[in-house]
Amino acid sequence: MDIHIENSWREALSEEIEKPYFSKLIEFVEHEYTQHSEAIFPEEQFIFRALNECALSEVKVVILGQDPYPTRGHAHGLCFSVEPNVQPFPKSLLNIFKEIENDIQHVIPENGSLLRWARQGVLLLNSVLTVREGQADSHSKKGWEQFTNAIISKVNEHNAGVVYLLWGSKAQEKALLVDQSKNLILKAVHPSPLSSYRGFFGCKHFSRTNEYLISIGKEQIHW
Predict the structure, then answer these.
(1) How, if at all, do strands 131-132 and 40-41 pair?
(2) Nearest in space to 44 (alpha carbons), one of 77, 9, 6
(3) Is the pTM of the predicted complex or chain greater than 0.90?
(4) Mapped to the 3 state alphabet, what secondary structure does 8-28 carry?
(5) Cα separation of 223 and 219, whole Å?
């Protein structure tokens, strides 16, 4: 499998990519694509899309998801995001848009692609970068978590003044990788329907993110 990663990320992660666990991970992923050709998401070309759409030096905000949507036609390499033609929106994504609407009065968009966020410096990173159709967590504990932890560590090492939006307990575990003295960490429950009413709605993470970015001289995100 060809590993296409944007140059700044490839340089920062060069030692990680050479580690034995990563070779085993890629072997596993290659086997999955071979054995279940059209049932592994996202498409192979989009596995590292979060990195390819947001260079390391451009990262201003990190949003962490769990693994890609296991529904055919949804996942395209950016956490919580879906292809522009997907309707209705996944419920977690809809709840994100509802909170944005309530927080900063932006109307819910017509499509669910968050590519526009990535291109403003939002790293939309899942902890696990691939999944088998209909089987959430099917590619967990294969090595992706170690790799994406390394990504977060590299952001922490190279960038300051980054906002980390950690939604749900799994995402919040990553706070240990971040120097809280030079960044902003905002925590809330996951935006899924099971938990969103227990603190995601009303968290105001989107306005708080922009207030922080402006306060340190960075451009705000147009959510």
Answers:
(1) antiparallel
(2) 77
(3) yes
(4) HHHHHCHHHHCCHHHHHHHHH
(5) 12
- Nearest-angstrom CA–CA distance, 68 and 164: 19
Q: Is 67 a catalytic residue?
A: yes
Burial of 110: CB neighbours in 10 Å, binned 0-12, 13-18, 19+ = exposed
- The 10 Å Cβ neighbour count of residue 144 is 22
Q: Which residue type occupies 11? A: E
In tens digits, the chain (223 residues) has pLDDT values of 888 899 999 999 999 999 999 999 999 999 999 999 899 999 999 999 999 999 999 999 999 999 999 999 999 999 999 999 999 999 999 999 999 999 999 999 999 999 999 999 999 999 999 999 999 999 999 999 999 999 999 999 999 999 999 999 999 999 999 999 999 999 999 999 989 999 999 999 999 999 999 999 999 999 9
What is the rounded distance in angstroms from the CA atom of residue 148 to the CA atom of residue 60?
17
Give the pair of three-digit tokens for residue 74. Answer: 């949804």
Query: Residue written as tokens 């708080």?
Result: 208
Active-site residue, from 2, 67, 103, 137:
67
Looking at the DSSP bridge assignments, the partners of residue 132 are 40, 135
